[in-house]
């Protein structure tokens, strides 16, 4: 562990200021709850832990690593609560963080929309170029918005592309589901980290050959496929794990924040959680209905 003087350590407020530069809160959706959840702005920070979900196991890991701050993609308190008593799991998380001097910060839809955010990282991992937002942000720059649309340098079959997705995302029990002809050729790709079936109109407008996102529900996906059958079969669908799609951003986010802190003269240790917080443990496949 590198030696750090007290003067080289940023405060929570310092970290929040630089996070605001990287992932502006103005880019967050109106329903979202980003920013500081637990912690004092004047507390010093020497270790920052990164994770997708602020679940009990992740908090325990952050405490074990003596983190002063936990940055998660998903908010702990997205919906209103009337109590944070330690009798419930959210209250227990709040108490554990406070008792161990660990701040909690959520970077959610602001990190989805920002340049270098969740969907940009997915697009980069999948080899997409000439990126543009799938759904541009109101009042943002032309590069900002939810989701990305880009081009593969070389067209490939849907089967080969789905295998690329599978190989580049963290392994989870639910795997990768695909809708479309295995031998169909794809080049234009739309991506959205997390749940993206609210963006089907934007996907169709983008003329994407295939759409990669998570948490596709039966009815919206079925309707898209039925409509596609009346046309040229596009867009094909690649449904991935919500957790896996967003985990990809964590190392990139940690590196970006570490770099900005260093530019400000601060030295902070970064660590990305190795805990898989995808909620599914195993899957059974291959049996046809009788």
Describe this structure in words.
Strands 5-6-8-9-10-7 form a six-stranded mixed beta sheet, with helices on both faces. A five-stranded mixed beta sheet has the order 1-4-3-2-11, with helices on both faces. The radius of gyration is 20 Å and the shape is globular. It has helices spanning 12-22, 56-64, 89-99, 109-113, 118-125, 158-168, 200-206, 218-229, 242-247, 249-263, and strands at 35-38, 47-51, 69-72, 103-106, 128-136, 145-157, 177-179, 185-195, 210-214, 236-240, 269-272. It has two domains: 6-110, 3-Layer(aba) Sandwich (Udp-n-acetylmuramoylalanyl-d-glutamate--2,6- Diaminopimelate Ligase, Chain: A, domain 1); 115-243, Udp-n-acetylmuramoylalanyl-d-glutamate--2,6- Diaminopimelate Ligase, Chain: A, domain 1. Helix 1 (12-22) packs across helix 10 and helix 2 runs parallel beside helix 3. The chain is α/β, with parallel strands linked by helices. The termini are far apart. It has ten helices and eleven strands. Residues 1-7 have low confidence and may be disordered.
């Amino acid at each position: 562990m590198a030696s750090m003087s007290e003067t080289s350590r940023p405060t929570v407020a310092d970290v929040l200021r630089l996070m605001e530069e990287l992932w502006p809160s103005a880019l967050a959706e109106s329903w979202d709850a980003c920013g500081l959840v637990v912690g004092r702005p004047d507390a010093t920070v020497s270790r920052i832990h990164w994770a997708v979900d602020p679940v009990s196991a992740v908090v325990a890991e952050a405490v074990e690593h003596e983190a002063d701050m936990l940055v998660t993609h998903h908010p702990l308190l997205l919906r209103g609560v009337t109590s944070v008593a330690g009798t419930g799991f959210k209250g227990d998380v709040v108490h554990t963080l406070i008792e161990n001097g660990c701040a909690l910060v959520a970077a959610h839809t602001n990190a989805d929309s920002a340049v270098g955010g969740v969907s940009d990282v997915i697009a980069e991992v999948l080899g997409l170029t000439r990126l543009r937002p799938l759904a541009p942000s109101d009042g943002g720059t032309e590069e900002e918005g939810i989701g990305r649309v880009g081009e593969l340098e070389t067209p490939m079959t849907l089967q080969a592309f789905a295998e690329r997705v599978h190989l580049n995302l963290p392994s989870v029990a639910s795997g990768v589901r695909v809708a479309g002809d295995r031998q169909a050729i794809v080049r234009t790709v739309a991506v959205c980290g997390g749940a993206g079936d609210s963006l089907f109109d934007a996907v169709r407008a983008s003329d994407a050959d295939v759409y990669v996102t998570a948490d596709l529900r039966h009815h919206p996906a079925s309707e898209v496929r039925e409509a596609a059958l009346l046309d040229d079969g596009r867009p094909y669908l690649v449904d991935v794990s919500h957790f896996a799609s967003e985990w990809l951003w964590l190392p990139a986010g940690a590196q970006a924040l570490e770099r900005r802190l260093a530019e400000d003269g601060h030295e902070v240790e970064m660590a990305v959680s190795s805990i898989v917080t995808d909620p599914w443990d195993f899957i059974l496949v291959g049996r046809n209905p009788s």
